[in-house]
Specification:
Chain A: It is found in: Cytoplasm, Cytoskeleton. The complex is a heterodimer. Chain A contains 39 helices and six strands. By secondary structure, chain A is mainly alpha-helical. Chain A is elongated, with a radius of gyration of 54 Å. The N and C termini of chain A lie far apart (about 165 Å). Chain B has three helices and no strands. Chain B starts with a helix and ends with a helix. Classes of the chains: A mainly alpha, B mainly alpha. The interface between A and B is large, with 73 and 53 residues.
């Protein structure tokens, strides 16, 4: 027996060391002993472990490429089903590999002999495997196989069969060797001989089943398994088996029509073929499950068509992404279902009772069904929407009662809101608007120039405000970004705005705070804080760098005649020039006069920058005007301050200035008249007959003075000062530039209304053509009478003055309280009221009277 | 018959792969030797012991060759 076994090794050795030409019987013996001895215990019998070891070795030797090659080869090897003891082969190769050989070497031939002989002695030929066959090497091998194969996957199946079926051999091996193992078996003992044939047959048979099993466990759709299923459930003539229905359903879930469940175009959904033999009990469940397919189709179509559409915008893209994420989950479920279906087929042999049924599927699909339904609803609602509107649509679903749906919506909304949120952050922080697809609720008009940046460049896109952001918040966000832009572009301010970095850092990652504001106020707080800081910074810059308040004060002083001495002196200097017709006026002359006026008064202590901006302006000339009518002061503004002092508001300033200037001039003229009267009084004393006339004169003049003074008082104290105070208060409280602008606008509106310069007052003071003609005639008559006699003239003047006396309470009915005050002040002692109560109902417009008065005063002064 | 042919080609493929791994690992075994080793392994030989035998034999053969060369 030993010799027989040796025969096998004989051949092997003759082959492996075929270069040795000698008969090497001692080597056989030694080799046999070595192989037979159990001294070489195996530390690892796991294929994977060995493979890893080899790879590590490669890596250690810096042969990463080879490691990759090896793992590829190993993978191929694993694909081979013929080899069972792969681990053993790998182990062997590993042991023999270059390095280990050199490590183990080191001995010479003598040691070899020595060690071999020691083996011979120390380990008895028959080892301690006493329980098993003991007397020959091949039995040993078997025992080793039995113990080792247990751990290796596929080969373990065979472990009970004593693996000795013929292993595949490459063709290069001569056919004589092919039979070697079998031959060994045959040679092993007489009693084995008859059973060998059977065994081989058995193994072959087993091998086939094995293959099918392996194939199926590989989950490939194989013809075998299909045929299996078909053969398993032959079914009665038209009753479909459950497995078929399930397979149909799994396809339908992914929107693929089946044989029996078809897509019905007219009804838009998957319908079961009426003729299909589906048990009635299952029909309903199948129909409900088939809905999933339709919903899946809807979602998939939407997501697929939109995800390539670039114009759909970031918000839309993220919505598609969210949908895709959900669909991926769904796909996962599908693959699990499919796997389960496969297992169903496999488990036919062994009845486990855990196989997939339609009812079970209905239960499993419950959750996904709801999710799909929600998403389909979202897709439906979001059709044709983008940006903020899309987020609004999704947000409206957030308050769903079902917590699972709510969390789904919440998840999707978080994804959808992410681009909006980051846009808000960049907009607030950098003032940059990265909104290529017009989805953000702040719109920017690139054509607007810097001067109008604040007023016109940025607008709110109301339709794009997501519902979770209130209009107020949107406005604040708009203002913040606008302020940043204003600072950067108009104010050319590059300094960073303090205490905003922290806000940004703490806020960036909390998308959810944007749509759960009722739960946490982080977003609101962030907006408020950023808004406040930015606005404060902007106002600081305006006040310090651009001296906004100084400009405002300059307006008050020069255009609204706040600087009394300057105006008075200017009037003194200009008197001669302005009496000339406007054609005779030269801007450079007037400018130099203005310069003189500044030098001569307290105005010289003002900031040089402000004085430089002060200028003379000649208004448009209309026929009959004199210098006084066209003269106007002007104040140039530029830069950021222009945002507040817009051209429109400058026009109002000029109009108010014009009015005040005229009133001032009246006062100036009347003061002149009074002076001449005083000086004339003495000269004319010698003519007592004149005293009556003079008295009349005095009366008239003082009445006029009274009127003008009251007007002045009213304008100065009740209009200008009050409004000015209000404006300053508002300026101090102002939170942002818009507040300042609004306050300034209110200020201008108030003064123009109270000075009776607004449209409403003008309507009342207006002059129609007929009135004008009448006026002309009246003036002619007036001149005629004037020529006749001084006394008569004076009395006429006096009476006409009486006639045009304005205060009448009937006027005041619709007027503002201030106007009433004004009326009241004019007729404080009710002198006029007492004189002629009918005057109250006078219908002569005020403005006519005013002109009249001026006319008369001019005539008086001419005289 | 087709089955056995397929098996044969599969076996050849497996053998090729093993040879490649062997060269990668620099075992110094040629294809034929390897085939024998594989067969031994398949029939359940202890790879550790087999490795030992092969190493020893390789060593012997080189020693013999050296001796030959010195003699001649």
């Amino acid at each position: 027996m030993v010799e027989h076994a040796r025969g096998l090794y004989d051949k092997k050795e003759a082959f492996s060391s075929y270069k040795l030409q000698h008969a090497l019987s001692p080597y056989y013996k030694v080799a046999l002993t070595t192989l037979g001895s159990s001294i070489y215990s195996l530390t690892e019998t796991d294929e994977f472990e060995i493979a890893e070891k080899i790879k590590r070795k490669f890596v250690r030797q810096k042969r990463d490429k080879d490691a990759a090659v090896f793992s590829e080869l190993h993978r191929i090897l694993q694909g081979q089903k013929l080899l069972r003891n792969r681990w053993a082969i790998l182990y062997l190769l590993h042991r023999l590999s270059g390095e280990s050989t050199s490590k183990q070497k080191g001995g010479t031939s003598s040691t070899f002999f020595h060690s071999l002989s020691s083996h011979l002695v120390s380990t008895p030929f028959v080892s301690q495997h006493s329980g098993q066959l003991t007397t020959d090497g091949s039995a040993k091998i078997h025992s080793v196989t039995g113990s080792s194969t247990a751990s290796s996957g596929i080969s373990s199946i065979r472990s009970s069969f004593h693996s000795n079926d013929p292993s595949p051999v490459p063709q290069s091996v001569p056919p004589s060797y092919l039979k070697t193992p079998a031959g060994a078996q045959l040679l092993r003992g007489g009693q084995v001989l008859p059973s060998t044939g059977e065994r081989v047959l058995h193994l072959l048979g087993r091998n086939q089943t094995d293959t099918t099993l392996m194939l199926r466990s590989d989950r490939t759709i194989s013809t075998t398994s299909t045929s299996y299923r078909m053969s398993r459930k032959p079914g009665s003539s038209d009753e479909l088996s459950e497995a078929v229905i399930l397979r149909e359903l799994v396809y339908v879930f992914r929107g693929i029509e089946g044989k029996y469940i078809k897509y019905d175009v007219t009804k838009e959904g998957y319908r079961i073929d009426a003729k299909a033999g589906i048990p009635r009990a299952l029909r309903k469940a199948v129909a409900k499950l088939a809905e999933c397919g339709w919903m899946y189709n809807q979602i998939w179509k939407y997501a697929d068509s939109r995800s390539t559409d670039r114009a759909f915008g970031l918000v839309g893209q993220s919505f598609c992404d969210a949908l895709h994420q959900e669909l991926t989950e769904y796909y996962r479920l599908m693959s699990v279902l499919e796997a389960q279906l496969k297992q169903n087929d496999d488990e036919v042999l062994s009845d486990h009772g855990s196989e997939l049924t339609v009812r079970r599927l209905a239960v499993w699909m419950c959750g996904p069904h709801i999710r799909l339904k929600t998403m389909a609803a979202l897709v439906d609602v979001c059709q044709g929407k983008k940006g903020g509107a899309l987020a609004t649509a999704i947000h409206s679903y957030l308050q769903h009662g079902d917590p699972t749906v709510r969390s789904l919506i919440r998840h999707m909304l978080a994804l959808v809101a992410q681009p909006i949120f980051s846009t808000i952050i960049t907009w607030q922080y950098h003032g940059e608007l990265e909104d290529t697809y017009h989805e953000f609720f702040v719109a920017s008009d690139p054509t607007v120039k810097n001067e109008r940046l604040w007023h016109e460049k940025y607008t709110l896109r109301k339709s794009m405000i997501p519902s979770f952001i209130s209009l107020e918040q949107a406005k604040k966000i708009l203002l913040t970004g606008k302020s940043v832009n204003f600072l950067r572009q108009v104010c050319h301010d590059r300094t960073s705005i303090r205490s905003r970095d922290i806000i940004r850092q703490t806020e960036t990652n909390q998308v959810e705070s944007i749509f759960s504001q009722d739960v946490n106020g982080i977003f609101q707080k962030m907006i408020d804080a950023v808004y406040k800081e930015t606005s404060r910074h902007l106002l600081d810059i305006l006040h310090t760098k651009y001296k906004f308040v100084d400009h405002l004060k300059a307006m008050r002083r020069y255009l609204l005649l706040g600087q009394g001495d300057f105006i008075r002196y200017l009037m003194d200097l200009l008197e001669d020039d302005l009496a000339k017709p406007p054609q005779m006026l030269f801007l450079h002359n007037l400018t130099s006069i203005l310069e003189t006026a500044i030098r001569g008064t307290n105005a010289q202590y003002d900031d040089i920058d402000i004085l430089r901006r002060l200028d003379v302006r000649l208004l448009e000339v209309s026929p009959g005007d004199i210098g006084w009518d066209v003269f106007s002061l002007d104040y140039h503004v530029d830069g950021p301050v222009q945002t507040v002092f817009t051209p429109e508001s400058m026009i109002i300033y000029l109009r108010v200035f014009n009015f005040l200037w005229r009133a001032k001039r009246m006062e100036y003229i009347l003061a002149g008249i009074w002076k001449s009267q005083m000086s004339n009084a003495r000269i004319l004393k010698s003519m007592p007959e004149l005293s009556v006339v003079l008295h009349h004169c005095h009366m008239l003049a003082s009445e006029m003075v009274h009127f003008v003074q009251q007007v002045q008082y009213y304008i100065n104290f009740e209009v200008l000062e009050c409004s000015w105070d209000e404006l300053l208060n508002k300026m101090n409280d102002a939170e942002d530039l818009d507040c300042v602008i609004a306050a300034h606008q209110v200020f201008l509106d108030t003064i123009s209304t109270r000075c009776l310069l607004d449209k409403q007052s003008q309507g009342k003071w207006g002059v129609t053509e007929t009135e004008e003609r009448k006026e002309e005639r009246r003036r002619k008559d007036f001149r005629h009478t004037m020529l006749s006699a001084t006394k008569a003239q004076l009395s006429v003047l006096a009476s006409s003055y009486q006639e045009i006396w304005p205060p009448s309470s009937s006027y005041a009915i619709n007027l503002e309280q201030r106007h009433k005050n004004f009326n009241f002040r004019l007729d404080f002692n009710e002198q006029y009221n007492a004189r002629d109560p009918k005057l109250r109902r006078s219908r002569v417009p005020h403005k006519t009277k005013r002109r009249d008065r001026e006319e008369k005063m001019k005539q008086r002064s001419d005289e | 018959m087709a089955d056995s042919e397929g098996k044969l080609s599969a076996a050849r493929e497996a053998m090729d792969t093993i040879v490649e791994i062997s060269t990668l690992l620099n075992t110094g075994l040629d294809a034929d030797t390897l085939a024998i080793c594989v067969r031994l392994c398949e029939s359940g030989a202890n790879p550790e012991a087999l490795a030992k035998v092969i190493q020893d034999l390789q060593r012997e053969s080189t020693a013999l060759k050296e001796a030959d060369s010195t003699v001649s």
